[in-house]
Design goal:
Oligomer: single chain
Structural class: alpha+beta
Number of strands: 29
InterPro entries: Hen1, HEN1_dsRBD2, Hen1_Lam_C, SAM-dependent_MTases_sf
Protein name: Small RNA 2'-O-methyltransferase
Largest sheet: 9 strands, mixed
Number of helices: 25
Helix content: 25-40%
Organism: Salix suchowensis
EC number: 2.1.1.386
Catalytic activity: small RNA 3'-end nucleotide + S-adenosyl-L-methionine = small RNA 3'-end 2'-O-methylnucleotide + S-adenosyl-L-homocysteine + H(+)
């Protein structure tokens, strides 16, 4: 306000010392907030604050007064000389400041035009704006709220009509009875979220508390169109990547490492601020993991290959799926709910995604992206029927409060409808659907011309690509060509819609080092005008010529998606069948360890694994070790692995030893995940085609019935589902693990259940490395039988017992 006061004291004649009431309403925070408390409609109708201020002035008699016939205020008594001298207002200069601005006509049939404000250093910039708007002085100029970031001085300025001025100056003015006459400026109103009438000027000029000098920045046609497309999520993302004609808001959130540009949460928060909504509320929750990965099923016996596939699911971040459709998970999982409210705290959007994620941050970003995707669809078709609007929301797990939503975005609808009904013959340099998304059909692109030799390095889904590209506007026949957008390096993840679909389709046909060029039809014009440095140069081409976009693309490099590396230990590995089978699958394992009591079996395992690992240079395994020793005795080298497996092992022990292994594994070895499988005794009726004897029969008859009771003569016991569930549940409870059940072979939802039952123990609280037993404070009872390292593939290292 001090800057406006200094400028008012430099005004000449009858305007000396007059400060427009609209300046106080818009720039004085305390007054503005008080007006909003007295009348909530002031938020969207800035002229209502003037009525409250003008009615309050007479009560301040002796301090300030109004100027007759003007919406201005001045101090009743002259300012003391020392105040005037200290304000540096007597310094005069003949220099002037030229500020570029934009004039936005109220009629959509008229084009937006650049204007220049010629402000003398000793003059008042609002008087200059008043002249541009065709009014006599600054008191009739109304100001919108600031547009864009909080520190911005960009505002919309528009003139109060003569009838509005007379009504505001009336002693009997009643805010509730105001009926503003004139044409609503839909484009200007859309920017600031306030009712703007008549022609408006968008300018970035004003006084800040940090400086006595007039702050000013140029507002060009390009910046206007950039602000326009930033009002939709897709445009906001394009701007964050500085790739307006190439980037697209991705359809899914994969990882933070591969994401480029503004994150979905940031874009959603910006969107709410731009549309004058409350900040979105994010409510992440931790839940038991329910994944969709299914186990292979066999109609008869459990095979070693099935066990390998089971372990492979886990080493690649998968999960188990029980017969009833319930899944068994490995990691902590999260889901996030997002709510969007109006400034008056009316619920507008509530998104409750069903998808779950390992990381809380991923759940927040994915839920935000889901809301943004729906908003993009809405802005693409602003006039969609209410029924379709709700159906599209339901498809994305969004509950829409239609009445509140349409109320908040009524201005968008109005702008869209007016444009669709406007003069189709006018040479409007912008698309008729101002916020229409840039989408292309197969008929909008010419077949690409790919040049260069095939290198063999090609992109695949999930790959991170780097390209160089240029986009030019070309006229029909190629007589005129204007470069619009280019980048020497542009990274994006392929397979999730991160770039315009046609470009993605072209690069999937290329290999590193190859170039391609192709033409596409034009997107909505505002995207083109936002991309070029000088839109005025392009307007005539868009208005008078048939044009297309010409893309030139070079594929520079392809980076395959990174994987989280893990370590696995197989308790009771035997001859290494599971570890061997895992090497037949793509894996994120970095270290493999096996432990067993049988040295003969371990010797066979060493030969098999060494041959395969030495031959597979791309296995991803860095090291492998086989230990000879009992899995019921603790060894610190088997502690703290990501995944532990014990498949079809415990039934070869006495029950007491099996229970001891469970306690040792979960209290000392403490893998993040432990998978235990054992035969389902009840399934033997299927395998033996007869009713098996019960485990409670006379012990004297045990030797006679053993062959038909258990599947293998070496089995010391076989548990029913109830016995296995009881053992696993109590074990998990004692050691602070969660447990979920599944199986392989047979069907979990058909009696007698799975052929082999599985328990997946998941660590509920991870220990720090310092809390785990170390080699210094624990004995090492296991002996290394074989050790392999990726840096030394020549000979196996073995130790005899």
């Amino acid at each position: 306000m001090s800057g406006h006061l200094r400028a008012a004291l430099q005004r000449k004649g009858g305007l000396y010392g007059l400060v427009p009431a609209s300046v106080i309403a818009a720039c004085d925070t305390k007054t503005s907030n008080l007006c909003k408390l007295l009348n909530t409609e002031v938020e969207s109708k800035p002229f209502l604050a003037l009525s409250l201020i003008m009615r309050a002035i007479p009560r301040l008699s002796g301090f300030v007064v109004t100027s007759k016939g003007q919406l201005s205020i001045q101090k009743q008594n002259p300012y003391p000389t020392e105040i005037i001298e200290s304000s540096d207002i007597q310094q005069c200069s003949t220099e002037s400041i030229l500020v570029k601005a934009i004039q936005i006509p109220a009629s959509l049939d008229e084009t937006i035009q650049p204007v220049t404000l010629d402000i003398s250093s000793s003059g008042y910039y609002l008087d200059v704006i008043a002249q541009k708007l065709g009014v006599t002085d600054a008191s009739k100029v109304l100001l919108s709220r600031t547009i864009g970031k909080a520190s911005s001085e960009t505002r919309l300025y528009f003139a109060a009509s003569e009838s509005l001025v007379m009504e505001l100056l009336s002693d009997h003015a009643n805010v509730k009875d105001f009926h503003v006459k004139g044409l609503l400026n839909a484009r200007a109103s859309y920017f600031c979220g306030q009712e703007i009438y008549g022609d408006a000027i968008m300018a970035s000029v004003g006084y800040t508390w940090r400086s006595k000098e007039l702050f000013h920045e140029d507002v060009s046609l390009q910046s206007y169109y950039r602000m326009l497309i930033s009002k939709i999520p897709n445009g906001n993302y394009k701007l964050s990547r500085e790739a307006i004609l190439t980037a697209e808001l991705p359809s899914v959130f994969t990882t933070k490492a591969n994401w480029r540009g503004s994150f979905p949460r940031e874009i959603l928060c910006t969107f709410c601020r731009q549309h004058q909504l409350s900040e979105p509320i994010f409510s992440p929750t931790s839940i038991p993991l329910k994944a969709s990965c299914k186990l292979p099923r066999s109609q008869k016996k459990l095979k070693v290959t099935e066990a390998a596939e089971l372990a492979t699911e886990y080493t690649n971040g998968g999960s188990l799926n029980a017969g009833d459709g319930e899944s068994v998970g490995l990691e902590s999982s999260f889901r996030c709910e997002v709510k969007v409210f109006s400034k008056g705290q009316d619920l507008i959007i509530e998104c409750s995604p069903k998808e779950i994620y390992k990381k809380q941050s991923d759940a927040i970003q994915s839920a935000s992206l889901q809301v943004l995707s729906w908003l993009n669809a809405y802005f693409k078709e602003l006039g969609m029927p209410l029924e379709k609007l709700n159906c599209s929301a339901d498809a994305l797990d969004i509950r829409l409060t239609s009445e509140n939503f349409l109320k908040e975005f009524a201005l968008c609808q109005s702008l869209h409808n007016v444009q669709q009904c406007g003069n189709q013959g006018s040479k409007l340099p912008e698309s008729k659907s101002t916020n229409m998304e840039y989408t292309l059909s197969g008929q909008d692109v010419c077949l690409p011309n790919i040049e260069g030799s095939y290198s063999g390095v090609c992109p695949s889904s999930g790959s991170l690509l780097c390209i160089s590209y240029s986009v030019s506007l070309v006229t029909e026949g190629g007589h005129t060509k204007e470069l619009i957008e280019s980048k020497d390096e542009f990274e994006f993840e392929i397979g999730n819609g991160t770039v315009v679909s046609t470009l993605e389709g072209v690069v999937t046909q290329m290999s590193v080092g190859q170039c391609a060029h192709f033409n596409m039809n034009l997107p909505p014009h505002e995207f083109i005008l936002a991309a070029v440095d000088d839109p005025a140069r392009i307007v005539s081409l868009l208005s008078s010529e048939i044009c297309s976009l010409e893309y030139h693309v070079t594929l520079l490099r392809v980076t395959e998606p990174s994987e989280e590396r893990m370590e696995q230990v197989d308790f009771g590995c035997g001859s290494g069948s599971l570890l061997d089978s895992l090497l037949d699958y793509p894996t994120s394992l970095e270290k493999m360890v096996g432990a067993d009591l049988s040295q003969k079996s371990l010797s066979r395992a060493a030969k098999i694994l060494h041959a395969k690992l030495s031959a597979k240079s791309d296995a991803g395994i860095k090291s492998a070790i086989l230990y000879h020793g009992s899995i019921t005795e603790f060894d610190p080298r088997l502690c703290g692995f990501d995944i532990g497996t014990c498949l079809e092992v415990i039934e070869h022990m006495e029950e007491e030893q099996a229970c001891l292994f469970g306690d040792i594994a979960l209290s000392y070895f403490r893998p993040k995940v432990l998978i235990v499988s054992t035969p389902n005794y009840e399934y033997n009726v299927i395998l033996q085609r007869s009713s098996p004897t019960t485990q409670e029969e006379d012990p004297d008859e045990k030797s006679l019935s053993q062959a038909c009771k258990f599947r293998n003569h070496d089995h010391k016991f076989e548990w029913t589902r109830e016995q296995f569930n009881n053992w696993a549940s109590k074990l998990a409870e004692r050691h602070h693990y969660s447990v979920e059940f599944s199986g392989v072979g047979g069907s979990g939802d058909v009696e007698p259940g799975f052929a082999s039952q599985i328990a997946v123990f998941k660590q509920e609280s991870h220990l720090d490395d310092d809390d785990l037993p170390t080699q210094e404070n624990s004995s090492q009872h296991c002996k290394v039988i074989w050790e392999w390292n990726c840096n030394d593939r020549s000979v196996p290292s073995s130790t005899s017992n």
